[in-house]
Design brief:
The chain is an alpha/beta fold. Helix content is 54%, strand content 12%. It has 14 helices and 8 strands. Strands 1-2-4-3-5-6-7-8 form an 8-stranded mixed beta sheet, sandwiched between helices. Helix 1 packs antiparallel against helix 2, helix 3 runs antiparallel to helix 5 and helix 6 packs across helix 11.
């Protein structure tokens, strides 16, 4: 294969990538969004493809190979996500052009592998091994600091969503559609209150309200009204997803407005319980509005570069922070959402309202460290409950009796004055 053939194949794969991008974000954007909502992702991705195509023919063989392999790895991630949409979600028209990303990614990889083989080879065996070792080190660094963080950002902004059925919740409830201020419609359930208080339940990253069923059943037994909805881009809700919850505040506002208008919910008796991403969203919401009288954040963790920088130091910071910076920067580009304020700067705004922080011992990276920081910054109105040996947000499933005592007792004290 000549360099000219490599270039033609690279251009063909890049054209397939751009074709799908324009179909996915311009011609058939996610319901509840427009092409303007994805302008940054369109400009940056098309710009990268055009720049890569322009540079490819000017680079030496080794650089051409590395460039094509990076494009190939990320294009295959995109293709895999669209394959997932076909099998998990109800596919949209753009998911079919998304299948083009699989052969396009394979073409990129094939071109990259061929270009690397064409590179000059040192004459001595020693130099050949040194060259291979250097290439291996470069490959590991590029994979860790470029491909992995960008791939994670692609996943959290494009993860396939699982449909939610009206009868998935086994307790009596109303099926609702909430409308956020920007017009995005959210699928929701409401369990009427029997004690005058209500709790807004917020699910975790990549999930749906189905992940809140155990918590709903527990709180309903104690008479609490419950509102749970699918975050935008998840379950039965419109909009584009963001697995870090950066775009979640309009959804929370719609939920709180609904609860405030309910005749079965008394003024000053609205709490929020969030799992993982939902816990982080709950903390920001409570810092923004006094409507929330009490917060349970179960499994809150790192959701921005500022959060990561607040709990990392030493060797961990040197290794992980550059990767996390790339991951959150890519998320900003792909989602079009602004990075939210750091959590440790928000929790003090919740005081003197009561706050319960739940941190699992076997949680996601940095969960215990983040919650210890939040407890310190929140002051005496915050309570930290650590669960050594318990998986992330699995306190209720693994310690139901203790979880009921701590969480329901906390809400009873905060919302009912018991």
């Amino acid at each position: 294969m000549s360099p000219a053939t490599e270039l033609r194949l690279f251009l063909l794969a890049a054209a397939a990538l751009v074709l799908h991008l324009l179909d996915d974000l311009v011609l058939q954007p996610p319901p509840g969004t427009s092409a303007g909502d994805h302008a940054t992702a369109i400009l940056v991705t098309v710009g990268a493809a055009v720049a890569g195509a322009a540079l490819f023919g000017l680079l030496p063989a080794g650089a051409r190979g590395a460039l094509a392999l990076v494009f190939g790895a990320l294009t295959l991630v995109g293709g895999a996500l669209h394959v997932g949409h076909l099998f998990v979600d109800s596919p949209s028209g753009s998911d079919f052009t998304g299948l083009l990303l699989v052969p396009a990614g394979l073409v990129f990889v094939g071109v990259g592998a061929h270009a690397l083989r064409r590179g000059p080879k040192p004459a001595s065996a020693r130099r050949r091994w040194l060259k291979r070792a250097g290439e291996l080190v470069v490959a590991i660094l590029v994979a860790f600091y470029v491909v992995l963080p960008v791939g994670v950002a692609m996943y959290v902004t494009h993860k396939p969503k699982v449909p939610v059925a009206a009868d998935d919740l086994r307790i009596p409830h109303e099926n609702l559609t909430l409308t956020a201020a920007d017009g995005v419609r959210l699928g929701a359930w409401y369990v009427p209150s029997g004690n005058g208080a209500a709790v807004l339940l917020l699910h975790g990253s990549g999930g749906s309200r189905n992940g809140l069923r155990l918590h709903a059943e527990l709180l309903a037994e104690h008479g609490y009204g419950l509102l749970m909805y699918d975050a935008r881009g998840r379950g039965e809700s419109e909009g584009a997803p963001n697995g870090y919850g950066w775009s979640a505040q309009p959804d929370v506002d719609a939920g709180l407005a609904f609860l405030e208008a309910r005749p079965d919910v008394e003024e000053g008796r609205i709490g929020v319980l969030g799992l993982s991403m939902g816990g982080e969203v709950a903390l920001q919401a409570a810092a923004r509005t006094s409507v929330i009288a009490a917060v349970v954040a179960d499994g809150a963790g790192i959701r921005s570069f500022a959060d990561a920088r607040a709990i990392m130091d030493g060797a961990e910071a040197w290794v992980s922070l550059p990767q996390l910076w790339a991951q959150f920067a890519a998320t900003r580009v792909l989602s079009g959402d602004a990075s939210p304020p750091p959590l440790d700067g928000l929790v003090a705004e919740i005081a003197p309202r009561p706050l319960l922080l739940v941190a699992a011992g076997e949680g996601v990276g940095g969960e215990q460290e983040m919650n210890r920081l939040l407890a310190r910054e929140a002051g005496p109105s915050a309570e930290l409950w650590e669960l050594p040996g318990i998986a992330h947000t699995k306190g209720l499933a693994e310690r139901p009796g203790e979880y009921e005592e701590r969480v329901v007792g906390f809400l009873d004290d905060a919302l009912l004055g018991r």
